[in-house]
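Changelog entry: the PTS sugar transporter subunit IIA record was regenerated in this release. Current contents:
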Amino acid sequence: MKNQLFIISHNDFAEGIVKSVQMIAGKNTNIKAFGLQMGEHPSTITEKIEARIKPDERVFVLADLIGGSVENDATRLLNYPNVCLIGGINLPLVLEIVLTNPQTDEQIDHILESAKGGLRRIRLESGENSEAEKADNFFQ
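Regenerated structure tokens:
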């Protein structure tokens, strides 16, 4: 099954995520960005997405902020059985969805866990570590 991916956000964040994904993973016509602009109502985004939902495609809607206005309004899209709504996004999450084309809830849950693991505070190590040890510490 083919996936459609909609990134929704406040202002231009969604567009920036899509541009970054396409810079890394190449052009993808199945990913669209919608940003809520000042004075707009979130339902304008939800209506645009709803008009593009196809029953034979898995639809991912990724919102920038859990509990934010665009995510809250998009919850009505969950009435469609082929829609998956995810709140709180980062670039690794979007890249993994684009690159792996998940089809099952288990695959989606795995991607979410992986994206959570990609967040960490980066610190410089003090001491006399070799360059290899420094590289190993970076990726742990």
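The radius of gyration is 17 Å.
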